[in-house]
């Protein structure tokens, strides 16, 4: 089972992204975090906060790669945290390297399906948070819908 929750970082506090109805202060630098666990193993947490919109964009690029049977590696926008998706037959080895490597193996179909759902929720909600987010949200929603 894959679970995910996205937060905005506002005045050093984390607020549920989907419940937030205020104005995003700096649309060019949306601070936040993603909590993500696979089978109970925590891969991403609030201590790894960064530009959350860019992080979801990077994860979307990774999903496109995995859906095409290709491996993917990236780093957080402003932190030396590595995310890697390796293909092993019908599975994905999802690893995150911060101070140590955290790694899980997940069914490829489940991984793409669930992560795609989380990413679509993020970009749909981002689009609803202001006109300025429409074009970038549509760009990534198109990518996600092509999977």
Oligomeric state of the chains in view: single chain
Low-confidence stretches: none
**Count of distinct strands:** 9
Just name the CATH architecture: Roll
- CATH fold-type name: Transcriptional Co-activator pc4, Chain A
**How many domain modules?**
1
Tell me what portion of residues adopts beta-strand conformation.
Answer: 35-45%
- Report the span from N to C terminus: 20 Å
Mean pLDDT reading: 97
Protein model, in words:
With 147 residues, the protein is an alpha+beta fold. It has a single domain, classed as Transcriptional Co-activator pc4, Chain A (Roll), CATH 2.30.31. Helices cover 33% and strands 35% of the residues. It is built from three helices and nine strands; from the N terminus they run βββββαββββαα. It has helices spanning 52-67, 108-127, 134-145; strands spanning 2-10, 13-16, 31-38, 41-44, 50-51, 72-75, 82-88, 91-97, 101-107. Strands 1, 2, 3, 4 and 5 form a five-stranded antiparallel sheet that branches. Strand 7 (82-88) and strand 8 form a beta hairpin. Helix 1 packs antiparallel against helix 2 and helix 2 packs antiparallel against helix 3. 29% of the residues are buried. The model has no long low-confidence stretch (mean pLDDT 97).
């Amino acid at each position: 089972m894959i679970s995910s929750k996205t937060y905005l970082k506002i005045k050093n506090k984390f607020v549920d992204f989907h419940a937030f109805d205020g104005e995003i202060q700096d649309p060019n630098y949306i601070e936040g975090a993603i909590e993500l666990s696979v089978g109970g193993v925590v891969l991403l947490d609030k201590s790894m906060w960064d530009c959350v919109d860019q992080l979801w964009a990077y994860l979307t690029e990774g999903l496109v790669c995995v859906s095409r049977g290709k491996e993917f590696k990236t780093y957080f926008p402003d932190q030396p945290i590595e995310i890697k998706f390796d293909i092993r037959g019908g599975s994905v080895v999802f690893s995150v390297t911060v101070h140590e490597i955290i790694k899980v193996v997940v069914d490829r179909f489940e991984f793409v399906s669930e992560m795609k759902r989380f990413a679509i929720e993020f970009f749909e909600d981002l689009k609803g948070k202001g006109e300025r987010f429409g074009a970038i949200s549509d760009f990534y929603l198109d990518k996600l819908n092509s999977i």
